[in-house]
UniProtKB/TrEMBL annotation:
Pfam families: HTH_1, LysR_substrate. This is LysR family transcriptional regulator. One of its GO terms (cellular component) is protein-DNA complex. Belongs to the LysR transcriptional regulatory family. Residues 6-63 form the HTH lysR-type domain. SUPFAM superfamilies: Periplasmic binding protein-like II, Winged helix' DNA-binding domain. The keyword Isomerase does not apply. Keywords: DNA-binding, Transcription, Transcription regulation. Signal peptide: none annotated. GO terms for molecular function: DNA binding; DNA-binding transcription factor activity. InterPro entries: LysR_HTH_N, LysR_subst-bd, WH-like_DNA-bd_sf, WH_DNA-bd_sf. The lineage of its organism: Bacteria, Bacillati, Actinomycetota, Actinomycetes, Kitasatosporales. It comes from Kitasatospora cineracea.
């Protein structure tokens, strides 16, 4: 095999070891024995002519070359998975190409999303749009692995790296608090006011299957978060437009010094879908200021 060619199997093996930093756990994750996994990584290193992993009694660590292969390998595996998923979806649709999957963070951009779907549906030849709610920052993974064709994403929380995008709107942030909390009666708050509340630690969302460290509760979906806020167990931060889904037990208080949230519509750069292009044009037109 040529040095400039990598098999999907090799990338899966290496990525598992690089993420686990432990051959035993990686082998268990892959459903294989450890010795053939170790041999496969050694063969890969010999063929590429570089050391990818440092091995010692304390464990496994990535070399500089290993970090590059992990980053590129993840992207390559995501692209392969995306191709398979989009091909499978096209087959299930009977070969029709006029269907889009749009993912958006659950309960975010509600008014924008409703306006966009209505405006696009009125366009001649509009495609069917399936809306796929996601957790925090999951839109990026869904675009990369082919579960979605297009996404509404929010910077600075979402990364737009590797995608084409158009900016749609900018808005402030609110702290979503229990309505009975003393701070809920304030006209506005600063980040310092809510950044370290011992009685309301911020909720934690999973990222790539794991939760960041912290005292706040681990949440899996928007309904669970809403209930924990109503019960006085946590606080969360959202774009101001999230007021549309607040319960009576919630209070949304403006955060005067929080960075603005910029909503983008984003899609994979290799897309050649006319339906997607039409949806993007509709979103940009909908959010453009009126011409004087």
């Amino acid at each position: 095999m040529a040095v400039d060619t990598l098999e999907t199997r090799e990338l899966k093996y290496f990525t598992a070891v690089a993420e686990e930093l432990h051959f035993g756990r990686a082998a268990e994750r892959l459903g294989m024995a450890q010795p053939p996994l170790s041999r496969a990584i050694q063969q890969l290193e010999r063929r590429l002519g570089v050391r990818l992993l440092e091995r010692n009694r304390r464990g496994v660590a990535l070399t500089g070359a290993g970090e590059v292969l992990l980053r590129e390998g993840r992207a390559a595996l995501a692209a392969t998975a995306a191709a398979a998923r989009r091909t499978s979806r096209a087959g299930r649709a009977g070969g029709r190409r006029d269907r889009l999957v749009l993912t958006v963070k659950a309960a975010a951009s509600h008014e924008l999303l409703r306006g966009l779907l209505d405006a696009y549906a009125a366009e001649p030849g509009a495609a069917e749009v399936e809306v796929l709610p996601s957790g925090t920052c999951e839109q990026e993974d869904m675009l990369r692995d082919g579960r979605a064709d297009v996404a509404l994403m929010h910077s600075p929380y979402n990364s737009l790296a590797g995608f084409d995008s158009e900016q749609l709107l900018t808005e402030g942030q609110i702290a979503v608090l229990p309505a009975r909390h003393p701070l809920a009666a304030r006209a506005s708050l600063s980040m310092a006011d809510v950044g370290d509340l011992p009685d309301l630690p911020p909720a934690r969302w999973p990222r790539r299957g794991t939760y960041p460290p912290g005292p706040g509760p681990e949440v899996r979906d928007q309904t669970q978060l809403a209930q924990l806020i109503a019960l006085g167990r946590t606080v969360a931060f959202f774009p101001a437009s999230a007021r549309s889904w607040l319960w009576a037990e919630h209070a949304g208080v403006p955060l005067i010094d929080a960075p603005p949230i910029v909503t983008h519509i984003a899609w994979p750069p290799h897309s050649r879908s006319p339906a997607l292009a039409a949806l993007v044009r509709t979103a940009v037109r909908l959010c453009s200021p009126p011409t004087p």
